[in-house]
Structures are given as C-alpha cells and as structure tokens.
Amino acid sequence: MRDQIICLIEKTILKTDRFLHRTFSSNDGTEGLYPNQILPKEGAFLRWNNYFFGRKAFPHLKNYIDIAIRENMPESIQPEERRRLEKDMLQCQLALEITPLEYFLFDFPHLSYSERTTYLSDAERWRVLHEIFGEKVRSDHSDKWRFYQLAKPYFHREACKVGPDATKEDFMDFFSRHPRFFVKELNGCFGKNAYMLEPKDKEKAEAVYKKLYENGLWILEEPIIQSKEMSSWNSTSVNTVRVASFLTREGVHHNVMPFFRAGRKGFIVDNGFRGGIGAGIDVETGKVCTEGFDEHGHHYEQHPDSGVHYMGWQMPDWDALLRLTEEMHRSLPSCHRYVAFDLAHTAQGWVLVEGNWGQMLYNQRGARKGVRKEFLEYIS
User: Fold this and answer.
1) 3 state SS of 52
2) Nearest to 363 by CA among 198, 243, 273, 233
3) 40 vs 47: CA distance, rounded Å
4) What is the pLDDT of residue 254?
5) CA-CA distance, 153 to 297, in Å (whole number)?
6) What single DSSP character describes residue 285?
7) Nearest to 241 by CA among 344, 347, 359
8) Packed helices 61-72 and 79-96: angle between N→C axes, nearest 10 degrees
9) What's the gap between Cα 139 and its chain centre?
10) Rounded Cα–Cα distance for residues 5 and 19 (Å)
11) Residue 128 in 3-state DSSP?
C-alpha cells in the first residue's frame, strides 16, 4: 500500500509539472515563465529542509543524486556548488525526466535549458513506447526467446530455452551439438548474468541444466565467431553495432545515429555497464565519427586495450548491414514499429544478436546532441 501511495504521489507531481510545462512554455509570451519562474520553485520545494518533501515524492532520488555527485565530481566540491547541482538535478528530473546518472552522462552542467530539451530521457522513451504500443510489444522484445522466434532466420545460429515450458532433453540435444555455448538470462539486460559455458561431459552438462532450471529462465545460444576486423578491437567479447530502426508510412528509417560497442580485455560482453566503450557511426558512410566514450564520462581517441583508433574506422559491409536491418524490420509484425537491433559481423556477414525496445542514451552521449525530436517524430 505504501509503495502504491508513493507511486501515485510521484505520478501526480510529474503530471502536474507536465501540465505547467505545456501551459507556460508556449510561444505567446509565456515561454520563459516555466524554466525561469515555476521550475526553480518546484525544485526548491522538493529540496526544502534536506528533501523533506522530495523523499515523500521520490524516495530514492536523494540517494541517486548522492551517488551521481560522488562518481562525477571531485571530493573537494564546495557545499554551495553541491547545493546548486542538487537543485539543478531536481529540476531536470521534473522537467525532462532526466535522472542524476543521465544528468552527467549528457553533460547537462554545461548545457542551456533549450539544449537540454533536445535530449531523450530513458523514462520518457519508456513512457511514450508504453503509451503507444502497450505491454504486448514490449514483452516481445524483453523475452529473448520470444524475439528469437520472431526473427529466427536472421540469428544464423541455434538457440535453446531453459525453463518450465522446455525439457531437459531439449537442453541435452542442444549440448550434443554445441558443447560450448553462451548463456543469457531470458529477460536480462545490461550484460548481467551472461556467461560462456563449456561443460566437460554429459554429467557436468546435466548439473549445469539443473542449476539454470532452479535459478530463473534462460536462453542458450551457439557462440558467435566474429570477423577478424571486429575482433581487432577486443577478442574476448563479441563487439556489436546497435541500429535504432523506425518503421513509418514512408518506410524504414535508421538515420538516428547508430553506434558501435567494443568490450574491454577479458570481458565477454561489450555492454557499457561491463566496461564497454561506445562510439557513434555515420549512417551514410559506416565510418566511426566520434571518439570512444564510456558510462563514466571518459573519452578515448583509441581503444585503451587494443590501441585501435576510433575516428574514421570503417565498419565492414556497411551497406549490407543497412539492407539487412530494413529486411529484418519489415519481416516483423507491423506492431513492431521501433526496434533497436544489435548486430555482430562474422566471416559470413552480419548476424542478429538481439532486438531491444530501447536504450537511446548511448548514441546521444557519443554525438553530444539529443535525438528527442527525431524519436518522437518517427515513433508517432
């Protein structure tokens, strides 16, 4: 009951703020009222008396703010500067649904209010997609086995599910053909609970099956052998390209900057939460067009482990990747109007790694500009 009340308070505050935002940000002479008068008062209200009201509406926000400041600002930060940052982060949470992590990820301390409004927050992306498509489409993406069934011809590898509606015989049959396999949590994200396993014999494979079965739902996949070009970045991880694809009446669009991710030495995934480094790709040429960047605000001219330079690096078979992305998107049910495809390059060409319902954050970081306008135009 307490959690439901907190959720209701939070939704009410955000809805009220959005109403004020729309009302006092028009072009009839009131456009300056919201950011200059209303928003600062809302932020001060929530922060009053060490977040007396803020903790009631957003119980975890103070902790997120503390973590973000600790990870992104020097320990010697002055109290006055800290208070200014806290007020600013609260205002960004209210007006733009920007979390403290995104606040520093997008370098908001150095952006004007109008520049900030060009960025798409993860919360807004999630909310808009839910409002338009509902739970059914989201579950098709979050359930990796379900998406594998939808786009099976493009994976170019076998997979097996471990769960109540799959059998041990299915697992052992898969193991007989693929004694080394990649394991992912069925509804996992951010590279968590992803492993490469190689049971030595049938007995150990049965033990693996038992442990997986008793600890959630899983998808097992035949390993991807990436091409030499992509392996040159980091050989221990499969390094991928993410393409945000929109299906509209005018056709398939994927010109919201794609990005490339390379893992770090010793890691088997390239996800940013596991140390992976991203870079933007020019959609016309397929060349890397930004420096490398990570989740902690660091930028790289070259990969810190392999030494490969980012700017200007040519993705292999780029035109083929764009054609494949369009073909894959058109093959899906028409309700899947937005998909973020992850692809890997092999000696035989590009293969699908998985489809996602999201994560527009990384490419905004790389391009140092927001994609909110493009996302909302394409998705509507």
Assistant:
1) coil
2) 243
3) 11
4) 85
5) 38
6) T
7) 344
8) 120
9) 16
10) 21
11) helix
Q: Which residues contact 89 (CB under 8 A, 6 or more apart)?
A: 65, 68, 98, 100, 103
Collect all residues with Cβ–Cβ distance below 8 Å to 167 and sequence separation of at least 6.
none
Alpha carbon 54 to chain centroid, angstroms: 27
**Residue 292, helix vs strand vs coil:** strand
Angle formed at CA 340 by CA 338 and CA 346, multiple of 5 degrees: 140
Q: Exposure string (b/e) for 182-198, b if CB count within 10 Å is 16 or more?
A: bbbbbebbebeebeeee
Distances (CA, A) of 152 to 77, 321, 351: 52, 17, 11
Band of residue 183 on the pLDDT scale cut at 50, 70, 90? very high
Output DSSP code: residue 320: H
Q: Percentage of the chain with pLDDT > 70?
A: 92
Nearest to 103, CA basis, from 55, 90, 272, 21 = 90
| DSSP sequence for 148-174 | HHHTGGGT-S-EEEESTTS-HHHHHHH
Beta bridge partners of 218: 162, 185
How far from the centroid of its chain's Cα atoms is residue 289's Cα?
20
Sign of CA dihedral 311, 313, 318, 319: positive
pTM of the model: 0.84
Name the residue with tokens 């397929």.
286
Q: What angle is formed at CA 39 by the lines to CA 33 and CA 42, rounded to 5 degrees?
A: 135
CB 118 within 8 A of CB 372: yes
Q: Looking at this protein, which amino acid is placed at residue 114?
A: S
Residues 6+ apart with CB under 8 A from 141: 147, 339, 355, 356, 357, 358
Q: Work out the average pLDDT over 22-29.
A: 62
d(CA 213, CA 358): 28
